[in-house]
Amino acid sequence: MSYALIRARRETRLDLGAFARESGTHPELIRRLVALGLLDARQDPTGELWFPRGELAALGRVQRLHAGFAMNYAAIGLVTDLLDRIAALEAALRIAQISQTRGDPLGAAGQPPRRPGG
Known about the structure:
The protein is mainly alpha-helical and 118 residues long. Helices cover 52% and strands 8% of the residues. It has two domains: 10-70, Orthogonal Bundle (Multidrug-efflux Transporter Regulator, Chain: A, Domain 2); 72-118. It contains four helices and three strands. The longest helix has 29 residues, at 73-101.
């Protein structure tokens, strides 16, 4: 018996059919979410949609917001943008706090730490 010397690599991108199967979502809904800008997909020259594997998590987020808060998909776009902005601000604040505790008054980027909203 022989074995391959390398592992088979999972595809890093999925076509529409594979994305729909892995997420358990109807392909037409996925197309709508792409049109609304809620999912990132690339289109090849034949018009086929291709999704990075990470978009499965983005789809899960959209589905949780839609089910949990009964929001329409247009509102979910606004909410996800705000949540992403909050996460970025919190990360910047954490970096500023860490650099202050280490005695680096200029922070990791060589600039004084900024306060959120300021």
